[in-house]
């Protein structure tokens, strides 16, 4: 066996292990800051118009519900956020939604499989980041959007096309690295 | 004890049955619904079909399949409805497309790679050792003779 092939034989497994280690390290650091989720699935609706739907407002609160027509021909991009009062990651992302709200980004909330009093208590206690707040108690409209868990956040551009979907909480990292550049791009 | 363990291994896999209230009264229609559902991935548990899953979303999708069957839609229409909303991932048997070509081609590629390696290794195998020359034979005989 030549010297070169011996070196290759010795180096190949080490190189593979090193590459695997680096990949694994990236995955772990992504898991930690929320930018990588091994269970996340890309949305089938990406770059497509928002689906057909109509949602009533969450009962006994002032914000209106919304329908597909409310997401077409907008002055600026809108976030559609599926959430529930029983959802723990929704609490994690709530400060980021409040920050976006203070910056004037319109967020349309869809309260998923929840009770209206619980939903109202959630926003009364933690603050309300929404400009519209609709109820999807049966969860059928969520299926139209391809939602498979809460929270899920969609970025709808001014023409009503879905440009981005984030399954899971919008962490500070996701907000800064993914969402804010997109909001500027589609502004 | 050992027999019991073997028997346990033989036990048929249990499928989570849909709630009685969700089952279609017509057994043939219910069987069709289950056939469709077994090919649909539960997006929450991901390793299971919606027929095997207890997740809320899986139950909703089982209901939708049954509603659409009763409304007269066929299997293709129902699968298309789910595929349009959740993409290839929801089909436990993904369709062949540009995006899934690598997935489907992997077994063939792996086999081809294996055959290629075999051929290359064969070709590189050391040439057969030539027979001993007369001089070498003599030297060997001499060595054998010395005690």
Describe the model.
Chain A has 187 residues and is an alpha/beta fold. Chain A folds into two domains: 1-32; 54-185, Glutaredoxin (3-Layer(aba) Sandwich), CATH 3.40.30.10. Chain A has helices at residues 3-33, 88-102, 116-126, 140-145, 172-185; strands spanning 54-55, 66-67, 78-83, 107-112, 132-136, 152-156, 162-167. The termini of chain A are far apart. The model of chain A has no long low-confidence stretch (mean pLDDT 94). With 147 residues, chain B is mainly α. Chain B folds into two domains: 14-90, Cytochrome C biogenesis protein (Helicase, Ruva Protein, domain 3); 98-126. Chain B has six helices and no strands. Chain B has helices spanning 2-10, 27-37, 56-70, 75-86, 101-124, 134-145. The A-B interface holds A 39, 41-45, 51, 113, 138-140, 143-146, 148-149 and B 43-44, 46, 56-57, 60-61, 64, 83-87, 89. Chain B: InterPro entries: C-type_cytochrome_biogenesis, CcmH/CycL/Ccl2/NrfF_N, CcmH/CycL/NrfF/Ccl2_sf. Chain B: This is Cytochrome c-type biogenesis protein. Chain B: The chain crosses the membrane at residues 101-121.
Summarize the structure.
The complex is a heterodimer of chains A (187) and B (147). Chain A has 5 helices and 7 strands; from the N terminus they run αβββαβαβαββα.
What order do the helices and strands of chain A follow?
HEEEHEHEHEEH
- The largest sheet of chain A has its strands arranged as 5-4-3-6-7
Radius of gyration of chain A, CA atoms, in whole angstroms: 21 Å
What is the assembly state of the chains in this entry?
A: heterodimer
N→C terminal distance of chain B: 64 Å
Identify the CATH class of the largest domain in chain A. Alpha Beta
| Name of the CATH homologous superfamily of the largest domain in chain A | Glutaredoxin
Shape of chain A: elongated
Largest interface: A-B, 17 and 14 residues
Q: Give the domain tally of chain A.
A: 2
Rounded mean pLDDT of chain A is 94
Q: First CA to last CA of chain A: what distance?
A: 63 Å
State the domain count of chain B.
2
Percentage of residues in strands of chain A: 15-25%
Low-confidence stretches of chain A: none
Count of distinct strands of chain A: 7
How many strands of chain B?
0
Strand content of chain B: under 5%
Number of helices of chain A: 5
- Which class best fits the helix and strand makeup of chain B? mainly alpha
Q: Give the CATH topology of the largest domain in chain A.
A: Glutaredoxin
Organism (chain A): Rhodovarius crocodyli
GO biological process, one term (chain A): cytochrome complex assembly
Pfam family, one (chain A): Redoxin
InterPro entries (chain A): Periplasmic_diS_OxRdtase_DsbE (IPR004799), Redoxin (IPR013740), Thioredoxin-like_sf (IPR036249), Thioredoxin_domain (IPR013766), Thioredoxin_ResA/DsbE_sf (IPR050553)
